[in-house]
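For reference, the entry.
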Amino acid sequence: MKSAKMAQRLAEEIEQDIVRNHSAGDHLGTETVLMERYGVSRSILREALMLVAVTGLGEIRRGHSGGLFASTPSLATVAASLQASFSAAADDPLELNRTRHALEDVMLILAVDRFERERIGDALALIARLEGAVRRNARMALASDVIHLIAQQCGNPFIAVVVLALTSIAIDGLTRQRSDPEAMMALGDRMLELRFEQLRAVLAGDAGRALVANAQLHETHVAHRALPPIAAADDRAAAGDGRPIVAPFGVGQCEKLAEVVARRIRNRIAGERLDEGAYLGSEAELMLRYGVSRAVFREAVRLLERHALVRMARGKHGGLRVHVPTPDAVVTASVLSLRNLRIEERHVHEFGSAFGLIVVERLAADPVRRSAPQVGELLRSLIVVRDVPLSELARAHFEMLTGLCGGQALQTLGRILARFEGSGIEPAGEVATVREVLAAPVEDLIAAIASGDTALARRRMMIVQRSGARVRMRPR
C-alpha cells in the first residue's frame, strides 16, 4: 500500500517535470539514472513509469539507449483519464447529457470556423468508409472516429477533451441500461447517422445544421433513457462487465488490457450504484472474473486508485473496495489530466466564456432557482471585487458562477475552471486588486434571468462578458 502511494506521488512529480520542462522526444534518463535521481527502488520506479505512460506524457523504450522519453498525449488518452475522474460527478445522467449537449454545440461551432483544409480528405474518407461498409460492426466503429476528428478541429483541446469524456460517460450509461437488444441496435444506428450528419454539416460550413443534429442526438439519448428496462442475465451484464452493446460510440481507442479492466470495474461501480466501502471482491476473485494476470489486475487497480475510485485492503479480510472521491479530489484529478495537454490561457478563456453562457441559460430555464434571492446577490458581486490578489481574481469569478450552477456536472466544471484561472499568474505580492464592471449590464442580466427568457439571458451575459472590466492595482 505504501509503495503504491510512493509510485503515484513519483508519477505526478515526473509528469509535472515533463509538462514544465520538456518537449516531445526529450530523453529524461535511463532506468538507472531515474532511480538515482529520485532515490527509489526499481519496482517503485517501474510502477510510476507505467502510470506516466498511461497518461501519454511519457514513452518507455527498452534497450541500451532506452529509458523514459517525453511524448505528447492524444486527446483520446486525456479524455479517457478525465472520464475516470469525472464519472464520479455523473450522478444525474440527464443533467450530464444536457451539459454534454451544450458544450458540444460550442465545439461544433468552433469546428465549422476552424476546420483545416488538410483534414478535408480525412473527413471525406470517413464518409466513403461508411458508405462502403457492409458489416454493421464496421459501420458502428466509425462513430468514434467522427467525433474525434471534429474534436481535433475545434482548435480548443480543453473543450474537446471535456466533450469526449462526457460523451463516453453518457455512452457507458446507455450500455449499462438493460434495454431490449433491438432497441439498442436502433439507438446505435440513429446515433451513427447523426454523427455523420454533424460531420457533413461541419464540412459544408453549416453550423445551424450541425447544431440541429446535436439536438437530435440529445433527444435520442433522452428517449432511450425512457425505455423500460429488461432483466439482465446476470449482474455482469447490468454492471457493464460483459461486452458492451454500443461500445463503438465511446471515445476509447486502442485501450491496454489494464485500462479495459479499470473501465469495467468503474462501470460496475456506477451500474450497481455502489456506496463507499462496498466490497468488490478479493484479488484472486477479480482476476478470475476479468480473466487477467495478477500484473494486469494490479495495474488496473493503480489506475483506479489514482482517480480515488477504489482502495485495496490487504490482509485476511482484504480485497478491493469502493471509494467515493470528494468533489475536491475529483477536481484535482481532472485538473492533473487536463494539464497534460499543455492547455493555453486562451483555451481556458474560451471555455470560460462558453461556461458562463451555459450557466445563465440553465438558470433562466429553472423557475425555482432563478427566483432565489442569492442569484442577484451573486451576480452583483461581479460589479466590484476588492482586495483580491491578481492571481485569485479570475478564480473568484468562476467560483461565483459555480455557485449559480444547479447540476453536479456543471459545478465540477466550474471548479475546474476556477482552479485553472489565475494558476499561471504570479502572486501579486504586496499588491491588491480592485476589479470593476459596469453595473447596468449586470442588472440587465439579472432581469433577463428572472424573466425566464433563456435567449435573452444568453445575449445579456455576452454583453457582460464583452463589456470588460477595469482592474486597478493598489498597495495593501
Summary: Confidence is low (pLDDT under 50) at residues 231-240, 242-253. The two ends are 47 Å apart (CA to CA). Residues 258 and 300 are 5 Å apart (CA to CA). DSSP finds 22 helices and nine strands in the chain.
